Amino acid sequence: MTNTAITNDATQAPTRTVAAYAAPAANSPLRRTTVERRAVGEHDIVIDVRFSGICHSDIHQVGEDWGTGIFPMVPGHEIAGVVSETGPGVTKWKVGDRVGVGCFVDSCRECDNCVSGLQQYCTGGGMTPTYNGIGRDGRPTYGGYSAELVVDEGYALRIPDNLPLDAAAPLLCAGITLYSPLAHWGAGPGKKVAIVGLGGLGHMGVKIAHALGADVTVLSQSLRKREDGLKLGADDYRATSDPATFTELAGRFDLIVNTVSADLDLSAYLGLLRVDGTMVQVGAPEKPVTVNAHALLTGRRSLAGSMIGGLPETQEMLDFCGEHGIAAEIELIGADRINEAYERVLAGDVRYRFVIDAATI
Description:
The chain is an alpha/beta fold and 361 residues long. It is built from eleven helices and 18 strands.
């Protein structure tokens, strides 16, 4: 990409003009354009983006389902690439390193959560999202549907050499979104874990929970993907459209991770937990959900939430996936098929993650 000095005033630092795919307005189709990246700072690295996953949250944000967006919007927070340039003060990375960037590119760095490595829960102004946010320089942040990314060296993660970059990209959101609750609530040998939904998130949950040594059951609306689920590592696969499922599995699980954003009867799912079991919500329904308190009281059960992971845990997840050879099941597409991919995600027509080949941007 070319370095172009864009100086609207004498104090503005030069920026980089890079190719990207952006939504010009809410609910608009994405199209090829250019955006300005900040100049490379003392501790910045430039990432030659090779692949970018399409997360369902990208579609939500383009549609302003979660609030007013900043447009033009360049989505993408499942980013895998190679370092192509480093700032003069960079010590962590060198040109040629394989790196990834997930859902945030900065945080306050000073609050208790940031200091303890839980940057996703930053209380000092909140984390700076990889796109649809405002960076420290006052500029909008643009995501991975782009040829290049400029990011502080501390907010990039190392991708293990044995993982293909295209299939590793979704680990930066889907992977860590499932790894974090599975690790935090102790999924492992002797534990029975249920994953609700076998989509982009759920299929990673099955792989990771299996690798952690847990007994894994998929709870899905139908048995349509049963063969896939068993191949991915599930020990059992049940249809939630069958009322018998909730009778036969009552009190079975130590941990349930709900990956879907649909309006489910959470009380019914809580009934599948053992005493002291926990159901963790990682999907984000658009409307508030209700729970029958008796579903919690009768088994000292817990209903919890989890959001991605901090920098240390995300690196831990990548290293774990490298050790176990875990990556996403993907369909690689050219950038000219992004809008088609959005439609297919909404229709549930992907197994299990679309990934954009950034060379086509």
